[in-house]
Amino acid sequence: MGTPGYAPPEQMAKRPVYASDIYSIGATSIYLLTGKSPKDWGYDPSSGLLNWQREVNISDHLARVLKKMSEMAVSQRYQ
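User: That's the sequence. What structure does it adopt?
Assistant: Structure tokens below.
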């Protein structure tokens, strides 16, 4: 189960872990800040990271937290 864009790759592959929920909370938080669905954010082709930061004016600290929560690689997310 999972909504594309709000569920991380490992959950879509039917191998969720606890950090999968962290990704979903991060994606939902970014949606609430930007008003845009994850499918509308786009990705940076060189890093693979979501391009949402230019859409909001938030503190650097909150941006770092949300960036870590929304990492595609489960090993890079909060555990």
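The longest helix spans residues 18-34.
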